[in-house]
Specification:
Order of helices and strands: EHEHHEHHHEHHHHHHEEHEEHEHHH
Number of strands: 9
Radius of gyration: 21 Å
Number of helices: 17
Strand order of the largest sheet: 1-9-4-2
Helix content: 40-55%
Largest sheet: 4 strands, mixed
Distance between the termini: 50 Å
Shape: globular
Structural class: alpha/beta
Strand content: 5-15%
Amino acid sequence: MGEKKHKVQVHYAESLSQVYDQIESIAEEIRKQKAQERPLLWFRGHSNTKFNLEPSIFRGSEYYFNENGTYSNNHLREEYRFQSFMSRNFDNVTERLPQSIIEWQEIMQHFFTKTRLMDWSESLTVALEFALEAFITPEKNLEIEERRKKLTPAIWILQPDVLNMDVYDSFFQDGNDLIKRVLDDSPKRDILADKLKKELRDHKEIYVNLCNTNEKNMNVLVSLSALEYTRNTYAYRKEQALEKLEINPFFYLLLRYYSDGVPVELDKLPPLAIIHPYHSQRIKMQRGVFTVFPYYIPDEMTIKLKKFAGTYPISMEYMDKCIPILYKIQIENPLRIAEELILTGAKRGSLYPDMENISKDIENVV
């Protein structure tokens, strides 16, 4: 990984109006740098500014790969969780059943099972409600009071479309064999990999960018759950479909690395921003979207840091490809901002729309 020369920009806010001012400042900076009239931003609220942008399943865990570098103990940890969650909650999914493992992962993530996904929201208000949850909660007890004294909340801001364009560009960068390694072991593999790499490099307007002004808001935002349906269509003639370019090779590569979990080196492929089906009223209310991480193969520097710090630095704020498209707002006066947010209608029941939390909000008159 090496020493990082750059860090994520940190902004500060002591009032709700300052939060909005900082968002506008960030948007204006993006407009000047990238000539984007209306930058696309996702938001994530942290109750503590010290928390990293790292999926829960990777936090504090040892990381072991087999000799081929194809399967790890974290693959196993994910599979056991999926099997247990699906078996015990199959009857609790009252809407349409998920059609793939990656679709189940979204439900697992929202109900606190450890996954490779990280929650973001399309709404700044939702992110603020998560960051300030201890200050908005109607409960009054010693534990909440102690948390309030110790916490310095923060809001993370991400440019998801730029992140995914970095993913796209990664597949044809010099020295990367990302395409070749996911193709079946066949005599045509090298030829097909070179063909797909050239195709992706030369034809962004076909495989990733819609050029029509009225359609640009859809660019690069993908749903792995939806792509699983496409894959099923070509299940029995995948190689032929790729060779004839009947399917989008970019979408196929996303499925292999982010849905199937093909391992990849830490510096070759960043996380992917994805949209997902809403499987509950809770997820819909939270305007939930996600970043999903591939399984990263630890390099020597990562292993050394593990021994020194006790965890692998698989966090977005330390990744070279993520640093330029991440921003952070540290909340310096959380109680004031929480009170101002409550005036705008923020409630715990907005995040967790069940009867218990709605009842607590009714009683929160003090």
